[in-house]
């Protein structure tokens, strides 16, 4: 479609001319490798933690448990705080890095922030692949977390700001698509390296590839027009917009960007503005959607898929292969979201998926409660059914709460609080990802199969949240989101009315 027909989008009654240009496609793919970087790490950590060589070197207690079938119950073999810290330390570091990234994203631009992300990630990978002890391993994970924090802050904003409005959802979901591709690639590599001596070093070392691509890509892609205007480079911003849109007539869209940036300059303290009554709806939605995304249970499954399948009685190679299958489903289903998000909207996808995810989780829990004993495994047929149900769950998440968790927060803030608000969204994602990663194996040990009922209860709450509180943002220009979305919503409009009354009084 590069250089194809016009894609027009409405901005307050004005039609913005835009082509899907080669520079948009290239810039978006290069930027979205931040998602590939994130996804690879999510996938690789679960795989290496099930590899005997890795466990023997860093977690000998867990290794001994896995070798003695009668030593521990199915649900508790991997219950180890150090092992959980290996996975979760990245997200705790990402939480801290996000707030620094908010500053660099606003002051230095989206592009430079992605450059910093790539640098941190590559250095962290080198330490991980060369690790000789647990301390070196954790320090490497912390640096990876800094890279993830910077990338997750800058990339979704970059994608939302560079995309034509009518294709904003699909373009933004490129980030989530490459997250799923990263998970799949990591699962495939883990499956191959599990047969090698010290294969875990290869798995961890190959994470440098997406980090390096992001680093190099950040040197060659264009900065977004809103970011350039924010930094006082209006002429460059206009030229960038013309280049991105592939047309000379960008007056209406550029004026809207300039107006938004001028309003943003009046706000000297964006974090303070964020906590005013009128800032609450976007802040609440963007943070709670991150909490819900984690409490679907998806990261528990994706982090520990090989471990989870071993818990169900699969052998080591079979568990890694099952993780590959879920990774394939994850990638395929994300294409559904790319196709549907700008056609059917955000809310319908979320509602449909909530129903499908709820049924899948309840069914998995029911099978495990009734058929999985403390030791031993499931019979072949039931094990296959569980894999299908896990795939059904992953599928629905991949076209809904996965991509929407990044898309919606990137498009619901006015420009003056956009980077600050998105920083809260990313940091919330990081802290709850950390909580789930740090707690899941212990929860699995203590709650056993009932953990799936725990997550399904959360999914029920999420469906109600979408019905009553989540507005639709399909086709709404980012600069007009306050007027068209928040001030029109039956619940959230009251916050703007109350603030207006206070100002008048």
From TrEMBL:
<dbReference type="GO" id="GO:0016020">
    <property type="term" value="C:membrane"/>
</dbReference>
<dbReference type="InterPro" id="IPR020846">
    <property type="entry name" value="MFS_dom"/>
</dbReference>
<feature type="transmembrane region" description="Helical">
    <location>
        <begin position="282"/>
        <end position="307"/>
    </location>
</feature>
<keyword id="KW-0769">Symport</keyword>
<keyword id="KW-0813">Transport</keyword>
<keyword id="KW-0472">Membrane</keyword>
<feature type="transmembrane region" description="Helical">
    <location>
        <begin position="137"/>
        <end position="159"/>
    </location>
</feature>
<dbReference type="InterPro" id="IPR005829">
    <property type="entry name" value="Sugar_transporter_CS"/>
</dbReference>
<feature type="transmembrane region" description="Helical">
    <location>
        <begin position="319"/>
        <end position="342"/>
    </location>
</feature>
<feature type="transmembrane region" description="Helical">
    <location>
        <begin position="112"/>
        <end position="131"/>
    </location>
</feature>
<protein>
    <submittedName>
        <fullName>Sugar transport protein 13</fullName>
    </submittedName>
</protein>
<dbReference type="GO" id="GO:0015145">
    <property type="term" value="F:monosaccharide transmembrane transporter activity"/>
</dbReference>
<dbReference type="InterPro" id="IPR045262">
    <property type="entry name" value="STP/PLT_plant"/>
</dbReference>
<dbReference type="InterPro" id="IPR003663">
    <property type="entry name" value="Sugar/inositol_transpt"/>
</dbReference>
<comment type="similarity">
    <text>Belongs to the major facilitator superfamily. Sugar transporter (TC 2.A.1.1) family.</text>
</comment>
<feature type="transmembrane region" description="Helical">
    <location>
        <begin position="202"/>
        <end position="221"/>
    </location>
</feature>
<feature type="transmembrane region" description="Helical">
    <location>
        <begin position="20"/>
        <end position="40"/>
    </location>
</feature>
<dbReference type="InterPro" id="IPR036259">
    <property type="entry name" value="MFS_trans_sf"/>
</dbReference>
<comment type="similarity">
    <text>Belongs to the major facilitator superfamily. Phosphate:H(+) symporter (TC 2.A.1.9) family.</text>
</comment>
<feature type="transmembrane region" description="Helical">
    <location>
        <begin position="82"/>
        <end position="100"/>
    </location>
</feature>
<feature type="transmembrane region" description="Helical">
    <location>
        <begin position="171"/>
        <end position="190"/>
    </location>
</feature>
<feature type="transmembrane region" description="Helical">
    <location>
        <begin position="349"/>
        <end position="369"/>
    </location>
</feature>
<feature type="transmembrane region" description="Helical">
    <location>
        <begin position="450"/>
        <end position="470"/>
    </location>
</feature>
<feature type="transmembrane region" description="Helical">
    <location>
        <begin position="422"/>
        <end position="444"/>
    </location>
</feature>
<dbReference type="InterPro" id="IPR005828">
    <property type="entry name" value="MFS_sugar_transport-like"/>
</dbReference>
<dbReference type="Pfam" id="PF00083">
    <property type="entry name" value="Sugar_tr"/>
</dbReference>
<dbReference type="InterPro" id="IPR044778">
    <property type="entry name" value="MFS_STP/MST-like_plant"/>
</dbReference>
<feature type="domain" description="Major facilitator superfamily (MFS) profile">
    <location>
        <begin position="27"/>
        <end position="474"/>
    </location>
</feature>
<keyword id="KW-0762">Sugar transport</keyword>
<keyword id="KW-1133">Transmembrane helix</keyword>
<feature type="transmembrane region" description="Helical">
    <location>
        <begin position="381"/>
        <end position="401"/>
    </location>
</feature>
<keyword id="KW-0812">Transmembrane</keyword>
<dbReference type="GO" id="GO:0015293">
    <property type="term" value="F:symporter activity"/>
</dbReference>
